[in-house]
Amino acid sequence: MTTERKRVDLSRFNNADFPKGAGGVKMTLWYFTNALFFLNPLFPFRSVKPGLLRLFGAKVGQGVVIHPGVNIKYPWKLTIGDHVWIGQRAWLDNIDRLTIGNHVVISQGAMIIQGSHNYKRIDYPTMSGPVVLEEGSWVGAGAMVMLGVTLRSHSVLSAGGVANKDLEPYTIYQGNPAQPVRERVIE
């Protein structure tokens, strides 16, 4: 006798109660602002981007550089320190609180993924967790930082790495899942 296993039923998915932090008008205005000024590779002017983020509730420091093609989900859940660089095609999927410290680099194509789904439940509910990139940390090109992770001060997640747990300070990590490979020494 075989037992029928339960299956995922996406028709039961309901994200209506997930806290987006803004109403429909603000979300719509941000959608178009993001598409025109952040995602658009034909808009290369970096100097206006921090001001636009502030208009939508982000806390943004001085000397922030945001390259073209960057996708930011919810600026009202975003804090960026001073002298931060965000590279082309970086994706800040910040459905939860994202805190970026001073002198942080998020390289081109890097992804900060703050949402997932509970695969153990039939209705596949959304889960989220805050991410913290402490001072001097570096997310390499094409790397991924997953929900609930903190990159401690001056840690490095090398190109293509996947951080699914906290990274120790002044340590360089590589791989999937990211593993420590050596100490970061700054001269």
Radius of gyration: 18 Å
Q: Strand percentage, roughly?
A: 25-35%
Please, what is the CATH homologous superfamily?
A: Hexapeptide repeat proteins
Structural class: alpha/beta
Query: How many runs of DSSP E, i.e. beta strands?
Result: 19
Mean pLDDT: 95
| Order of the strands making up the biggest sheet | 2-5-8-13-16-18-19
Q: How widely separated are the two ends?
A: 67 Å
Separate helix tally:
2
**Helix content percent band:** 10-25%
Shape: globular
CATH fold call: UDP N-Acetylglucosamine Acyltransferase, domain 1
CATH hierarchy, class: Mainly Beta
State the domain count.
Answer: 1
Query: Main β-sheet, in a few words?
Result: 7 strands, mixed
Architecture, CATH level 2?
3 Solenoid
Please outline what is shown here.
With 187 residues, the chain is α/β, with parallel strands linked by helices. It is built from two helices and 19 strands.
